[in-house]
Design a protein that fits this description.
This protein has 373 residues and is α/β, with parallel strands linked by helices. Helices cover 44% and strands 13% of the residues.
Length: 373
């Protein structure tokens, strides 16, 4: 638990999220997203590199001047030109990245590890001299030689870099692997450690949690997990995982705003919120089976690890189906202000089951039976 208590979210919807296939955020939309994420309590907002386009540069400048509580970061390649351009935007911090896997060294920039260390030292030294917060990350960390990336991290750590980043760029890592790498790194350097995990194999949330357990201090997220390919650790999913461990871990965040954030991003990128989405999916707090409904009515924690009211939501006991139980039907009768005996409720429950066997039902159908009795 101690290793989970001091962490920050680097919310990357405005950087990684822009790489999602349907993401085409206007300046006004970026400001709306940034403002809402700031109200939620995200400690950092990461923006697309100012080198990406003229509008990206302009947007960095505008969002950096909004006066938000969150620190504003931008993301750049490991070059002095990029670093200088990033500083010019007025952001609070610059996230520098360079590929270290054999794939990226051969097919991307062509540099050897010693060359990477030399270039990283120049860029990090420059950025530190400008008074901005600096993160240095290896890209495709999981497919890099660990001895190589530890050499790189130890070199920039000696320069006084604020954070180093482990990036599971292709989503290949497992929680065990992530834990082992970060645990080893934690014993080698003094700087903070950031984890950026893609979700190609469905492990992004579990990997992020394992990173925190091992000593990571910062986790990259995006709203609904949007990003390149299958995206990265979803903000709501990380919050749900931490809340399930201990609600106190996420008490610093304005949890009811998750619903607005998910709805906003879903609308802007033209996707539906998944039915089983963490916290905000339409079925997240719906109970249907009779045995579940009875227990939940007596004590919600029997079948809920998350309290919907802490997220500004409510649970729903579904009664219009063949699996319904009389306790759930009785609860619905009480909601309608009806004073029915247990025998009456049990009789109506039987009627509901018979009708449901012959076709789909609605809540109005159930209410009609209850009100007619």
């Amino acid at each position: 638990m101690m290793s989970l208590q001091n962490f920050s979210i680097i919310e990357s919807t405005l950087r990684e999220g822009e790489q999602f296939v349907n993401a085409f955020f206007s300046t006004e939309e970026k400001i709306q997203i940034a403002t809402l994420l700031d109200a939620f309590g995200a400690e950092y907002l990461e923006l697309t590199s100012p080198l990406a386009s003229p509008e990206s540069y302009s947007d960095c400048c505008k969002i950096a001047k909004l006066g938000l509580e969150a620190k504003i970061l931008t993301h750049t390649r490991c070059t002095l030109t990029d670093a200088q351009k990033a500083v010019d935007t007025g952001v609070d911090g610059v996230d520098v990245v360079i590929g270290t896997s054999s794939y990226l060294r051969e097919f991307s920039h062509g540099k050897e590890i010693d060359e990477i260390i030399d270039l990283a030292s120049k860029v990090v030294t420059y950025l530190l001299s400008q008074g901005v917060e600096v993160r240095f990350s290896t890209e495709d960390s999981l497919r890099s030689d660990m001895a190589d990336i530890f050499r790189v991290y130890e070199a920039v750590d000696q320069l006084g870099v604020h954070r180093v980043g482990i990036a599971d760029t292709v989503g290949v890592g497992t929680p065990h692997q992530i834990y082992a790498i970060i645990k080893e790194l934690r014993g080698r350097i003094a700087a903070d450690i950031e984890f950026h995990g893609h979700n190609d194999s469905g492990c992004a949330i579990a990997n992020a949690y394992a990173a925190l357990e091992a000593g990571a201090t910062h986790i990259d997220t995006s709203v609904l997990g949007i990003g390149e390919r299958n995206g990265i650790t979803p903000l709501g999913g990380l919050v749900a995982r931490l809340y399930a461990t201990d609600p106190a871990l996420v008490k610093k965040y304005n949890l009811p705003l998750l619903r607005r954030l998910d709805a906003l991003i879903a609308r802007l990128v033209r996707v539906d919120i998944p039915f089983n989405n963490y916290i905000t999916g339409f079925a997240s707090f719906t109970h249907k089976a009779g045995i579940h409904a009875k227990a939940v009515l007596n004590n919600p924690s029997t079948y809920e690890i998350l309290k919907p009211e802490d997220f500004g939501l409510t649970r729903y006991i579904h009664v219009a189906h063949r699996l319904t139980g009389w306790n759930a039907v009785k609860d619905r009768a009480e909601q309608l202000g009806l004073d029915l005996s247990d025998e009456q409720v049990k009789y109506i429950t039987g009627r509901i089951k018979q009708m449901a066997d012959n076709g789909s039902m609605t809540l109005d159908d159930v209410d009609s039976l209850l009100l007619a009795d």
